[in-house]
Specification:
The chain is an all-beta fold and 374 residues long. The protein has strands spanning 8-12, 23-26, 29-37, 44-48, 57-62, 67-73, 79-86, 91-97, 106-111, 116-122, 128-130, 136-137, 147-150, 159-164, 169-173, 186-189, 199-201, 210-214, 218-224, 232-238, 243-249, 258-263, 267-271, 285-288, 293-299, 308-313, 318-322, 327-332, 340-346, 355-360, 365-371. It has a five-stranded mixed beta sheet, with no helix packed on it. A hairpin with a 7-residue loop joins strand 19 (218-224) and strand 20.
């Protein structure tokens, strides 16, 4: 393993001692936690501006409660509940965008153990109502886990992407721009079972969104050619352990998208990107983490314009990775969040540093960590 680009520095983990649950220090900035009542059951979190006031708001999908809950940010580190809205059976993932062209943020929700996704239109005030054609039957097998919204073909209309595990691919439904999607869609092969946590980013700087999937034994890299009978070129990046979830971010500040891979064991791998859609395995670094990573969120925690990451795990620990030429890590637990599941990074107090939310997988609680402005 070549550590010329990356060196791992652990800031706060000695034996079984962990950082304080209530206050965490990241470099020179302290983050203090408060507990927020949300919904119950394996939450997924999205951050977006729901009411066009310039503040990042929060949507949480709750698997057991069959709903989403929304919170409006006041721009000073506080959140105000805006309502809860039916989201179909067992919502397990969500994605946001304006899918009907009215200028308001809408949401699409993956419904676990079903054959459909739920589509809700936003009212521009933090509320949602069912789209006329919702639920939308996507017929993926065994059922949808994750959804993403992105304009893949460059027509300025948002498309819908859903994992299609039994067909070893991603189902792409072309958006019409009016809140509807073209059925039955097309499944793009990814070289394996994508399961959870696929990512969408422009990997080669051509202005088109590319796709990255965690398969059983490798990572599927699908470069978007935008047109033709086969609009995606597939390359597979072999992994020594089965990847569980992936994310893409610029973790070393060189302007290229890097690959973050969490496996089912206790390793997080960061593989630098070369800016052309390939990743440099010889320069990868492996970070010892906690067993069984679940979700990865990215943002800028320390305000240096380099991407950082927040990762939840089955062990009850939460991992913070601070990007740069040296990768720094912090592990911590919060006793109110024994089963950390959903994670999000967003700037709630508008100080240029991402605050973070960690929602529990069993209870109806989430911890909200806010940076203390110095």
């Amino acid at each position: 393993m070549n550590l010329a680009k990356y060196t791992l520095l652990t800031l706060c983990f000695i034996a079984s001692a962990l950082c304080s649950a209530d206050t965490i220090k990241v470099e020179k900035t302290s983050y203090s936690a408060s507990i927020l009542k949300v919904g119950t059951g394996q939450p997924a979190i999205a951050a977006t501006d729901l009411n066009s006031d310039g503040n990042q708001d929060v949507i949480i999908a709750n698997n057991s409660d069959n709903n989403i809950v929304t919170y409006l940010s006041n721009g000073n580190g506080t959140l105000t509940p805006a309502g809860d809205f039916p989201a179909g059976d067992s919502p397990s993932g969500l994605s946001t965008s304006d899918i009907n062209g009215d200028g308001n943020i809408d949401v699409v929700i993956a419904n676990h153990e079903t054959s459909y996704v739920t589509m809700l239109f936003g009212n521009g005030k933090g509320g949602f109502y069912p789209a006329p054609n919702s639920p939308l039957s996507v017929q993926v097998t065994p059922h949808p886990h994750v959804v993403r919204l992105s304009d893949l073909d460059g027509d300025s209309k948002v498309d819908l992407i859903v994992d299609n595990r039994n067909h070893e691919g991603l189902l792409i439904l072309k958006g019409h721009g009016n809140g509807d999607f073209k059925l039955p869609g097309k499944t793009v092969k990814v070289g394996g079972d994508p399961y959870r946590g696929f990512a969408i980013k422009d990997l080669n700087k051509d202005g088109h969104s590319d796709l990255v999937t965690p398969n059983q034994n490798d990572i599927g890299i699908l470069i978007n050619n935008k047109s033709g009978k086969n609009p995606f070129s597939l390359n597979n990046l072999t992994q020594s352990e089965a990847p569980f979830t992936v994310e893409v971010a610029d973790t070393n500040g060189d302007g290229n998208m890097d690959l973050l891979v969490a496996n089912n064991l206790n390793v997080i791998t960061i593989i630098p990107g070369d800016g052309s859609g390939s990743f440099l395995k010889k320069k990868q670094v492996e970070i010892q983490a906690s067993n069984g990573a679940k979700q990865i969120a990215t943002g800028d925690i320390n305000g240096d314009d380099i991407d950082d990451a927040l990762i939840s795990s089955w062990s009850g620990e939460i991992l913070v990775l601070i990007g740069g030429s040296t990768i720094k890590s912090i592990k911590f637990k919060n006793t109110n969040i024994p089963n950390p599941w959903g994670v999000a990074l967003l700037d709630l107090n508008k100080d240029g540093k991402s605050d973070f939310i960690v929602a529990d997988g069993n209870s109806n609680l989430a911890a909200v960590y806010i940076s203390q402005i110095e």
